[in-house]
Design a protein that fits this description.
Elements: H1 16-29, H2 33-47, H3 62-77, H4 85-93
C-alpha cells in the first residue's frame, strides 16, 4: 500500500468535451482518470522521454509533416515542370 503522506496532488484544466471523450474511452478500458495519468507518468519515467509518438490530424509525425511542408515549398520554388507523373518518378530515381 502506498503511504498517503508521500502522495502529491496535481490539478489540470481541460475542456469539457475532451474530458468526456477521454472518460468514455478510459471507462471502456476499466481505468479512471487518475490511474491513466499515473500510468502515463510511469511511462515517461520508463522511457526517459515522451512515451508516444505525436501525430497531426493527417497521421503524420511532427517531423514527417515538417519534411512534407519543406518538400512542398521546394517543389513550388523549383524550375522543373512535370506534366506527367512518370516524369516526376524518373527524375526522383536519378538520385
Amino acid at each position: 500500500m502506498i503511504n498517503s503522506k508521500n502522495n502529491q496532488q496535481i490539478q489540470i484544466r481541460i475542456d469539457a468535451k475532451t474530458k468526456a471523450e477521454v472518460k468514455k474511452i478510459l471507462d471502456q478500458m476499466g481505468l479512471d482518470m487518475s490511474s491513466a495519468v499515473k500510468l502515463f507518468f510511469h511511462q515517461v519515467i520508463n522511457a526517459g522521454n515522451f512515451p508516444c509518438e505525436l501525430r497531426d490530424a493527417n497521421g503524420f509525425t511532427l517531423r514527417k509533416a515538417e519534411v512534407l511542408r519543406e518538400a512542398i515549398v521546394s517543389a513550388k520554388n523549383s524550375k522543373k515542370s512535370f506534366s506527367k507523373g512518370s516524369a516526376l518518378i524518373k527524375d526522383a530515381l536519378k538520385d
